[in-house]
Amino acid sequence: MKAMILAAGRGERMRPLTDHTPKPLLPLLGKPLIEYHLEKLAAAGVTEVCINTAWLGEQFPQSLGDGSRWGVAIHYQHEQEALETGGGIFKALPWLGEAPFLVLNGDLYCDIDFGDLPQLADEELAHLWVVNNPEHNPNGDFAFEQNRLVSEGREYATFSGIGLYRPALFAGCQHGRFPLAPLLRQAIADDRVSATWHQGIWCDVGTPQRLQQLEQQLDANLG
Fold first, then answer.
1. What is the domain-level CATH number for residue 52?
2. What is the pLDDT of residues 33-43, one digit of tens each?
Protein backbone atom coordinates (compact mmCIF):
# COMPACT_ATOMS: atom_id res chain seq x y z
CA MET A 1 0.00 0.00 0.00
CA LYS A 2 1.13 3.55 -0.75
CA ALA A 3 0.71 6.44 1.66
CA MET A 4 0.62 10.22 1.39
CA ILE A 5 1.57 12.76 4.05
CA LEU A 6 0.00 16.19 3.62
CA ALA A 7 2.67 18.77 4.42
CA ALA A 8 1.94 21.79 2.23
CA GLY A 9 0.18 24.07 4.74
CA ARG A 10 1.55 27.41 5.88
CA GLY A 11 0.92 26.82 9.59
CA GLU A 12 -0.32 30.33 10.40
CA ARG A 13 -1.40 29.45 13.94
CA MET A 14 2.08 28.09 14.70
CA ARG A 15 3.83 31.36 13.88
CA PRO A 16 6.48 32.46 14.64
CA LEU A 17 7.74 28.85 14.78
CA THR A 18 6.69 28.25 11.17
CA ASP A 19 8.19 31.45 9.78
CA HIS A 20 11.39 29.55 9.10
CA THR A 21 10.38 25.88 9.50
CA PRO A 22 7.43 24.00 7.95
CA LYS A 23 5.09 22.72 10.64
CA PRO A 24 5.69 18.98 9.99
CA LEU A 25 9.44 19.57 10.48
CA LEU A 26 9.05 21.22 13.88
CA PRO A 27 10.79 19.15 16.55
CA LEU A 28 8.86 16.96 18.97
CA LEU A 29 11.12 15.61 21.70
CA GLY A 30 14.07 16.48 19.49
CA LYS A 31 12.80 14.80 16.30
CA PRO A 32 10.83 16.33 13.41
CA LEU A 33 7.13 15.61 13.78
CA ILE A 34 6.86 14.02 10.34
CA GLU A 35 9.53 11.44 11.19
CA TYR A 36 7.12 9.75 13.61
CA HIS A 37 4.79 9.14 10.63
CA LEU A 38 7.61 7.74 8.51
CA GLU A 39 8.69 5.39 11.30
CA LYS A 40 5.15 4.10 11.84
CA LEU A 41 4.49 3.67 8.13
CA ALA A 42 7.73 1.80 7.62
CA ALA A 43 6.98 -0.45 10.61
CA ALA A 44 3.59 -1.24 9.02
CA GLY A 45 5.25 -2.34 5.78
CA VAL A 46 4.54 0.77 3.70
CA THR A 47 7.49 1.27 1.34
CA GLU A 48 6.37 4.22 -0.84
CA VAL A 49 5.31 7.60 0.57
CA CYS A 50 4.31 10.80 -1.22
CA ILE A 51 4.87 14.06 0.66
CA ASN A 52 3.31 17.19 -0.83
CA THR A 53 5.01 20.46 0.00
CA ALA A 54 4.59 24.18 -0.62
CA TRP A 55 5.72 26.58 2.11
CA LEU A 56 9.50 26.21 2.56
CA GLY A 57 9.17 22.98 0.60
CA GLU A 58 12.88 22.68 -0.13
CA GLN A 59 13.48 21.89 3.55
CA PHE A 60 11.74 18.50 3.32
CA PRO A 61 14.22 16.72 1.01
CA GLN A 62 17.04 18.48 2.83
CA SER A 63 15.83 17.01 6.14
CA LEU A 64 14.38 13.66 5.06
CA GLY A 65 16.36 12.77 1.95
CA ASP A 66 15.01 9.93 -0.16
CA GLY A 67 13.53 8.08 2.82
CA SER A 68 16.10 5.29 2.85
CA ARG A 69 16.82 5.91 6.54
CA TRP A 70 13.40 4.45 7.28
CA GLY A 71 13.31 1.90 4.49
CA VAL A 72 10.79 3.87 2.43
CA ALA A 73 11.03 5.66 -0.91
CA ILE A 74 9.79 9.25 -0.69
CA HIS A 75 8.18 10.94 -3.68
CA TYR A 76 8.00 14.74 -3.29
CA GLN A 77 5.14 16.67 -4.86
CA HIS A 78 5.90 20.38 -4.71
CA GLU A 79 2.99 22.78 -5.13
CA GLN A 80 3.66 26.41 -6.02
CA GLU A 81 0.51 27.25 -4.05
CA ALA A 82 -0.88 24.80 -1.50
CA LEU A 83 -3.79 22.96 -3.14
CA GLU A 84 -5.60 22.15 0.14
CA THR A 85 -6.29 18.58 1.15
CA GLY A 86 -8.49 17.56 -1.76
CA GLY A 87 -6.45 19.27 -4.47
CA GLY A 88 -3.17 17.91 -3.12
CA ILE A 89 -4.41 14.33 -3.03
CA PHE A 90 -6.04 14.64 -6.46
CA LYS A 91 -2.78 15.85 -8.01
CA ALA A 92 -0.99 12.80 -6.55
CA LEU A 93 -3.50 10.24 -7.87
CA PRO A 94 -1.38 9.25 -10.91
CA TRP A 95 1.41 8.34 -8.51
CA LEU A 96 -0.84 6.77 -5.87
CA GLY A 97 -2.33 4.35 -8.39
CA GLU A 98 -5.64 2.48 -8.49
CA ALA A 99 -5.57 0.69 -5.12
CA PRO A 100 -6.75 2.22 -1.81
CA PHE A 101 -4.13 4.43 -0.19
CA LEU A 102 -3.52 5.92 3.24
CA VAL A 103 -3.37 9.70 3.82
CA LEU A 104 -2.15 11.45 6.97
CA ASN A 105 -1.96 15.10 7.90
CA GLY A 106 1.68 15.95 8.48
CA ASP A 107 0.97 18.14 11.49
CA LEU A 108 -0.52 15.57 13.85
CA TYR A 109 0.76 12.95 16.28
CA CYS A 110 -1.00 9.70 17.07
CA ASP A 111 -0.35 6.15 18.24
CA ILE A 112 -2.62 4.42 15.70
CA ASP A 113 -1.22 1.08 14.53
CA PHE A 114 -0.99 1.30 10.73
CA GLY A 115 -0.08 -2.36 10.59
CA ASP A 116 -3.71 -3.25 11.32
CA LEU A 117 -5.58 -1.38 8.59
CA PRO A 118 -9.17 -2.33 7.75
CA GLN A 119 -10.19 -3.73 4.40
CA LEU A 120 -12.55 -1.45 2.51
CA ALA A 121 -15.78 -3.14 1.47
CA ASP A 122 -16.45 -3.05 -2.27
CA GLU A 123 -18.98 -0.22 -1.96
CA GLU A 124 -16.92 1.90 0.44
CA LEU A 125 -14.98 4.93 -0.75
CA ALA A 126 -13.19 5.69 2.51
CA HIS A 127 -12.40 4.64 6.05
CA LEU A 128 -11.69 7.46 8.50
CA TRP A 129 -10.22 7.46 11.97
CA VAL A 130 -12.05 9.76 14.37
CA VAL A 131 -11.19 10.82 17.91
CA ASN A 132 -12.80 12.37 20.98
CA ASN A 133 -13.61 16.02 20.43
CA PRO A 134 -10.74 18.25 21.66
CA GLU A 135 -11.25 21.64 23.29
CA HIS A 136 -10.63 23.45 19.99
CA ASN A 137 -13.34 21.41 18.18
CA PRO A 138 -15.99 20.67 20.82
CA ASN A 139 -18.84 19.89 18.40
CA GLY A 140 -16.89 17.41 16.30
CA ASP A 141 -16.89 16.92 12.52
CA PHE A 142 -18.91 13.79 11.71
CA ALA A 143 -21.66 11.72 13.31
CA PHE A 144 -20.54 8.20 14.28
CA GLU A 145 -22.84 5.19 14.47
CA GLN A 146 -21.87 1.51 14.62
CA ASN A 147 -18.44 1.93 13.01
CA ARG A 148 -19.79 4.11 10.22
CA LEU A 149 -20.07 7.82 9.62
CA VAL A 150 -23.56 9.16 9.06
CA SER A 151 -24.95 12.56 8.15
CA GLU A 152 -26.76 12.98 11.49
CA GLY A 153 -26.55 11.13 14.77
CA ARG A 154 -26.31 11.30 18.54
CA GLU A 155 -22.52 11.00 18.79
CA TYR A 156 -20.16 13.36 16.99
CA ALA A 157 -16.42 12.82 16.74
CA THR A 158 -13.50 14.77 15.33
CA PHE A 159 -11.77 13.69 12.14
CA SER A 160 -8.24 12.67 13.06
CA GLY A 161 -6.71 13.72 9.74
CA ILE A 162 -6.05 10.07 8.88
CA GLY A 163 -7.99 8.22 6.21
CA LEU A 164 -7.92 5.29 3.82
CA TYR A 165 -9.30 6.28 0.41
CA ARG A 166 -10.23 4.81 -2.92
CA PRO A 167 -9.30 6.91 -5.97
CA ALA A 168 -12.99 6.79 -6.92
CA LEU A 169 -13.70 9.24 -4.08
CA PHE A 170 -12.24 11.91 -6.38
CA ALA A 171 -14.23 10.98 -9.49
CA GLY A 172 -15.29 14.11 -11.35
CA CYS A 173 -12.78 16.40 -9.62
CA GLN A 174 -10.67 18.89 -11.54
CA HIS A 175 -7.08 19.96 -10.94
CA GLY A 176 -6.73 22.95 -8.66
CA ARG A 177 -7.25 23.99 -5.07
CA PHE A 178 -10.17 22.38 -3.20
CA PRO A 179 -10.92 20.85 0.23
CA LEU A 180 -11.49 17.19 0.99
CA ALA A 181 -14.41 17.65 3.42
CA PRO A 182 -17.21 18.11 0.82
CA LEU A 183 -16.21 14.89 -0.92
CA LEU A 184 -16.29 13.04 2.39
CA ARG A 185 -19.67 14.50 3.35
CA GLN A 186 -21.18 13.38 0.05
CA ALA A 187 -19.73 9.89 0.48
CA ILE A 188 -21.11 9.79 4.03
CA ALA A 189 -24.54 10.84 2.78
CA ASP A 190 -24.32 7.92 0.31
CA ASP A 191 -23.38 5.54 3.20
CA ARG A 192 -19.99 4.74 1.72
CA VAL A 193 -17.67 5.64 4.62
CA SER A 194 -16.70 3.35 7.51
CA ALA A 195 -14.80 4.54 10.57
CA THR A 196 -12.77 3.65 13.62
CA TRP A 197 -13.04 5.68 16.82
CA HIS A 198 -9.48 5.84 18.10
CA GLN A 199 -9.19 6.07 21.88
CA GLY A 200 -5.41 6.37 22.15
CA ILE A 201 -3.03 9.31 21.91
CA TRP A 202 -3.83 11.88 19.25
CA CYS A 203 -2.97 15.55 18.88
CA ASP A 204 -3.55 18.10 16.14
CA VAL A 205 -0.36 20.07 16.65
CA GLY A 206 -1.92 23.33 15.54
CA THR A 207 -0.47 25.84 18.00
CA PRO A 208 2.77 26.24 19.99
CA GLN A 209 0.78 25.56 23.15
CA ARG A 210 -0.50 22.21 21.86
CA LEU A 211 3.01 21.24 20.79
CA GLN A 212 4.27 22.01 24.29
CA GLN A 213 1.42 20.08 25.91
CA LEU A 214 2.06 17.08 23.68
CA GLU A 215 5.75 17.09 24.56
CA GLN A 216 4.88 17.16 28.25
CA GLN A 217 2.43 14.28 27.83
CA LEU A 218 4.85 12.10 25.90
CA ASP A 219 7.70 12.96 28.24
CA ALA A 220 5.58 11.92 31.20
CA ASN A 221 4.68 8.63 29.49
CA LEU A 222 8.33 7.91 28.81
CA GLY A 223 9.14 8.69 32.41
1. 3.90.550.10
2. 999 999 999 99
